[in-house]
Design a protein that fits this description.
Structural class of chain A: alpha/beta
Number of strands of chain A: 15
Oligomer: heterodimer
Helix content of chain B: 40-55%
Number of helices of chain B: 10
Radius of gyration of chain A: 20 Å
Distance between the termini of chain A: 18 Å
Strand content of chain A: 15-25%
Strand order of the largest sheet of chain B: 1-5-4-2-3
Shape of chain B: globular
Strand content of chain B: 15-25%
Number of strands of chain B: 5
Helix content of chain A: 25-40%
Chain lengths: 394, 233
């Protein structure tokens, strides 16, 4: 069963909303990025922050105020009328909220922690459940839209949002909900940047996926929210596949076996073959390990399929990446743009990796409407998730 | 599609063995609800996990692993899907990281890896070479009900005969959290094994939705289930 995407709200380093994002997506100049000090200021890495001014939540939701919920609000405002129509049509208890995040309001926790250390309590404006807790994100979105159906947050690091979208799909498929607000939101914060730096996974320059010179990822932030419904439309979430590597907490299976399993399960769930897929959005973080594992898995399953990573443009939005990148895929699928996303790198392929059909400036141009897109999200703990997006034959 | 599911086994571990026994006795109907007092946690042994992996686990992961090993038969451990519910995840590890940032100390790479919300399921999957679906969710005091919803949806798929629902949370103590009740019994973990139900009864979609609306907790669920069907452990 397909679940249709009635609307989408998107915010990232590329901009706020469809127009800004599409313009930046295909511009000649890439987003500039910023340098973020790490390790007590002894080093600095490149990050991709959202530069759009973020508004505070409405007064009645003030206790939820943190950067993550402000990002969520940006995306929510873009789908507000469609979400309201769903609530009106189906009733608030028949609409759910399932979103992904790996940080939630960790920025607020970080900001308040010095006060806690010095006084023994967090600041008065800090609300643990509404800001810090993962569940605070889904709760905030539900309260913003007046939704009373099933509401929860999926948190599995970088696969969070993609898994949330699969959950949303199931809730509609099995009749629990008639519509679900789904997607993901994550925030750039000191703990995640320093944590990834401690693992040696961050780059001082723009990420360079699949290059022999790749030197790490850039942390990004942002969010995407979708109104997923059973009502037929143009584009849909066809299905998804998940797996666990069962290999290591911070490194993927080197041959990409778990990634391949997730992709195969996604194709099976969507009832399509690999040859039907028009484009693959790679997880493509630009780390040695991920790109090696993913390229091996993708080359086995999709030897001739165009692909690219959008992370050099948006940064790695961690728990939100699956949703943000699904949003970027949708622009091409919906026909909002006549180009796929180019694979931005230094042009020097890693000879140790299988050859993929990375999108070039020339090959990006679409000669015919897209039909099926696959998007990968792979996470710590070997948590793998692949979703399949489709377009109706009209 | 609305195939009911039913619970076949369950297990719990509270902060200490004594607290665990008291809760089990209440659920089984042998005694009234105890008045739990906060006490230093005694993390359980998890000798089933390979030593090299075990020594890297967090305190919360040990509680999760203990209930997993208690109720999931060894031959099912590599192939069983896991729904893991935790309101606040690896709080103890997070506080270590926050402390390190506050004092401008280096972050431990292992601590950072262990701070992700789904840390426990990562270790379980590695230990058992489990490649199946694993989902970690958070929903405050509706977490268990959301987990029940997730597992019900999972078991609607004909190729998934059984799945385990695990809930767990750390004590928050006098720290950044504010849920006083959790201090008394946490760290805690519960594991419930579910299968599709072919006969009369079972938990259907209507019950699932009702549980969510009423914020049913795992302990209330176990108590109610035991009262209706009898002890099952």
């Amino acid at each position: 069963m397909y679940c249709y995407i009635a609307d989408m709200g998107l915010i990232s380093a590329l901009g706020n909303g469809a127009t800004e994002t599409i313009t930046a997506l295909h511009a000649d100049d890439l987003p500039v990025g910023q340098m973020w000090p790490v390790a007590g200021g002894t080093d600095a890495v490149m990050v991709q922050p959202v530069t759009t001014p973020l508004l505070a939540p409405p007064v009645h939701l003030a206790s939820y105020d943190c950067r993550n919920n402000r990002l969520a609000l940006c995306a929510a405002r873009q789908i507000e009328s469609t979400a309201a129509a769903a609530v009106n049509t189906y009733g608030p208890s028949r609409v759910g909220v399932v979103v992904g995040s790996s940080t939630s309001g960790l920025d607020a926790t970080l900001a308040g922690f010095p006060t806690y250390k010095e006084t023994g309590t967090m600041p008065a404006n800090f609300h643990f459940q509404h800001q810090h807790s993962m569940g605070g994100l889904s709760d905030f979105i539900a309260r913003f839209f007046g939704i009373t159906g099933p509401t929860y947050t999926v948190s599995t690091a970088c696969s969070s949002a993609a898994k949330a979208m699969i959950s949303a799909h199931r809730l509609i498929k099995y009749g629990i909900c008639d519509a679900v607000i789904t997607g993901g939101v994550d925030t750039l914060c000191n703990l995640t940047v320093n944590g990834f730096h401690a693992l040696g996974q961050l780059g001082r320059r723009r990420s360079n996926p699949m290059s022999r010179n790749r030197a790490g990822l850039n942390i990004g932030e942002g969010g995407a929210l979708f109104v997923l419904t059973k009502q037929e439309g143009t584009c849909f979430l066809a299905g998804g596949g998940e797996s666990m590597d069962g290999y290591h907490m911070s490194s993927p299976h080197p041959q990409g076996d778990g990634a391949e399993l997730a992709m195969r399960r996604a194709l099976s769930d969507a009832h399509i073959t690999a040859t039907a897929v028009s484009y693959i959005n790679l997880h493509g973080t630009g780390t040695k390990a991920n790109d090696a594992a993913e390229s091996r898995a993708v080359s086995r399953l999709f030897p001739d399929t165009p692909c690219s990573s959008t992370k050099p443009l948006t940064g790695h939005c961690l728990g939100a990446s699956g949703a943000v990148e699904a949003g970027l895929c949708l622009f091409a699928l919906q026909g909002d743009t006549c180009r796929l996303v180019q694979h931005h790198y230094d042009g020097q392929l890693d000879p140790d990796l299988p050859t993929l059909h990375l999108n070039t400036p020339t090959s990006c141009a679409l000669s015919a409407p897209l039909r099926w897109i696959v998007s990968n999200s792979f996470a710590f703990g070997g948590s793998n998730c692949t979703i399949v997006l489709g377009r109706s034959n009209q | 599609m609305n195939t009911p599911i039913h619970m076949t086994r369950w297990g719990i571990r509270l902060a200490t063995p004594a607290a665990t026994q008291d809760m089990q006795a209440w659920i089984d109907g042998h005694s009234p609800l105890p008045s739990f007092q906060p006490c230093p946690p005694a993390p359980p042994l998890i000798d089933e996990m390979p030593a090299a992996l075990r020594r890297r686990t967090t305190r919360l992961t040990r509680y999760v692993a203990r209930v997993f090993y208690d109720i999931v038969p060894p031959d099912a451990q590599p192939i069983i899907p896991i729904i893991y519910v935790s309101a606040n995840g690896e709080l103890a590890v997070l506080e270590k990281l926050l402390d390190a940032l506050y004092t401008d100390s280096s972050l431990s790479p292992m601590d950072f890896c262990n701070s992700v919300h789904h840390t426990a399921t990562g270790y379980l999957s590695i230990a058992a070479a489990n490649h199946e679906i694993s989902r970690t969710i958070s929903a405050g005091n509706r977490g268990f009900a959301a987990g029940l919803l997730e597992i019900w949806c999972l078991l609607q798929q004909p190729d998934i005969p059984q799945a385990v629902l695990i809930t767990a949370d750390e004590a928050q103590g006098a720290s950044i959290g504010d849920d006083a009740w959790a201090d008394a019994i946490a760290p805690y973990a519960t594991a419930l094994l579910f299968e599709r139900h072919s006969g009369v009864g079972g938990i259907d979609a209507h019950t699932i939705r009702s549980n969510f609306r009423h914020h049913m907790s795992v302990f209330t669920f176990l108590k109610t289930h035991t009262e209706a069907i009898g002890p099952l452990r």
